[in-house]
Design the sequence.
């Protein structure tokens, strides 16, 4: 009996932070749709281990974490251990390609893959490339970038502005609220669009156990939390709750601050109840504070879908998810981010009207509460931000990256290509009349201002293919659970 041909294998090094991991998972899903096997290379961090549990039909390997902080000798030892572990993995089954999603944890697998003849790719999601990607660009065959101005900061000739991938559960098809009789290709009227967003918010709030009728403020510092942002929000709580007694808080603090935040919300709620009882023998409903505090939420699409307004850091992956869900946001960039890249990311969004930006170091709790209150009470301003966010959403980013990898490796892009002598571009790559296939205005403006071309062939942004319907709030996918390996370095 003839053995079935082995599928192409693509290794994706995406560990360390959610900003590296979640876009990597999105690309992995698209590679699987194109009949590829995927090996996810992650770190031992809890955020990585939690997120990969939801992956299906992929192999997962945990490599030693690598961080360019503190002792340089420790960094060298960790890099060597990770390189040896990756070589051991690839010796058993060499990949055709290795994709690095950023961070020094992704560098050793790329170098190990090159030893086995694999093509090397990297994705840079931020406006200012990180040091690891700037270094890896010398070894990569092609780079994919989320912002146009990042391209000319990488020492690589072949690059494509793809946007930053988001997981499929952030797709608009995940939340089916419009009349099913309406054709999916019809552009919704503003009234229909508003109704869709309100229906989505109601569904997501109910799924999270929140009151669907209350406005909801979501605070998130990213997958690792943000102590400075948490402290600013907690200091502004008394004024925020006084101005908006019906406001619901969904606060994702990170593991380090969860107890402190819960204590602050509980203490303020107790104080308000005592104050209400002092004034009247009957407790007024407004005296209670509704809050949900969690260190991290895997179902981030539910949190964003439930939000009236989001307060967030400005990591590129978080911004891509905000754009996909079209959620108005106040961005508070991490002051200590490398090369101040979060401030540059936030400014790019703010310059197009897609977000408001605050400086954590110079903003007082009163100023923060005022801006939050202004946006909560100004539906028109939020609607303008939602409209501006559509410029930044690239629903085909993950598919574009997957197809570019396969084409560069000389591999078929889809199952139908296996029977064809020559690769044929899928329908969404075809030239179309009008501006359907043109880059969003925000990207075009940034590319022109930075002097970086969108791509050598000028066709990085494609018209997305028709998406399939999904469950209202169920982001689970069928398939086998991931096969997890803990790889030890060879002596």
Sequence:
């Amino acid at each position: 009996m003839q053995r079935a041909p082995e599928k192409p294998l693509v290794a994706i090094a995406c560990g360390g932070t959610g900003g590296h991991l979640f876009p990597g998972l999105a690309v992995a899903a698209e590679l699987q749709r194109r009949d590829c096997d995927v090996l996810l290379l992650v770190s031992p961090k809890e955020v990585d281990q939690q997120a990969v549990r939801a992956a299906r039909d992929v192999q997962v390997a945990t490599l030693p974490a690598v961080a360019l902080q503190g002792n340089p000798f420790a960094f060298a030892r960790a890099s060597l251990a990770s390189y040896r572990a990756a070589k051991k993995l690839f010796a058993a089954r060499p990949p055709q390609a290795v994709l690095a999603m950023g961070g020094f944890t992704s560098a050793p697998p790329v170098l190990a893959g090159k030893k086995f003849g694999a093509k090397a790719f990297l994705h840079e999601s931020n406006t200012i490339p990180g040091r690891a990607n700037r270094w890896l660009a010398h070894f990569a065959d092609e780079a994919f970038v989320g912002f146009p101005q990042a391209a000319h900061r990488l020492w690589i000739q072949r690059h494509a502005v793809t946007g930053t991938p988001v997981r499929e559960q952030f797709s608009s098809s995940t939340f089916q609220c419009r009349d099913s009789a309406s054709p999916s290709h019809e552009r919704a009227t503003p009234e229909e669009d508003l109704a869709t967003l309100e229906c989505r918010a109601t569904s997501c709030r109910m799924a999270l156990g929140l009151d669907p009728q209350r406005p909801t403020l979501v605070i998130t510092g990213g997958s690792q939390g943000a102590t400075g942002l948490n402290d600013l929000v907690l200091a502004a709580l008394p004024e925020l709750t006084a101005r908006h007694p019906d406001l619901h808080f969904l606060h994702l603090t990170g593991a380090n601050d969860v107890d402190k935040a819960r204590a602050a919300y509980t203490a303020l709620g107790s104080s308000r109840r005592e104050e209400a009882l002092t004034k009247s023998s009957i407790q007024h409903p407004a005296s209670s504070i509704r809050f949900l505090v969690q260190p991290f939420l895997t179902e981030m699409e539910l949190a964003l879908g439930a939000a009236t307004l989001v307060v967030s850091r400005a990591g590129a992956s978080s911004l891509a998810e905000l754009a996909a869900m079209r959620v108005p946001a106040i961005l508070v960039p991490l002051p200590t981010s490398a090369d101040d890249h979060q401030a540059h990311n936030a400014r790019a969004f703010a310059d197009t009207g897609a977000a408001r930006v605050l400086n954590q170091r110079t903003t007082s709790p009163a100023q923060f509460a005022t801006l939050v209150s202004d946006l909560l009470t100004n539906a028109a301003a939020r609607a303008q931000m939602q409209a501006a966010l559509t410029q930044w959403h690239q629903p085909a980013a993950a598919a574009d990256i997957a197809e570019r990898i396969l084409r560069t490796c000389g591999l078929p892009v889809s199952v139908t290509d296996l029977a064809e002598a020559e690769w044929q571009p899928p329908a969404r790559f075809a030239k179309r009349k009008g501006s359907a296939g043109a880059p969003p205005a925000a990207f075009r403006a940034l590319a022109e201002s930075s002097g970086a071309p969108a791509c050598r062939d000028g066709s990085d942004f494609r018209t997305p293919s028709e998406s399939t319907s999904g469950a209202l709030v169920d982001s689970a996918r069928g398939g086998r659970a991931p096969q997890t390996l803990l790889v030890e370095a060879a002596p």
About this structure: The chain is about 40% helix and 10% strand. Residues 9-169+395-486 form a domain with the Rossmann fold fold (CATH 3.40.50.2000). The CA atoms of residues 216 and 248 lie 5 Å apart.
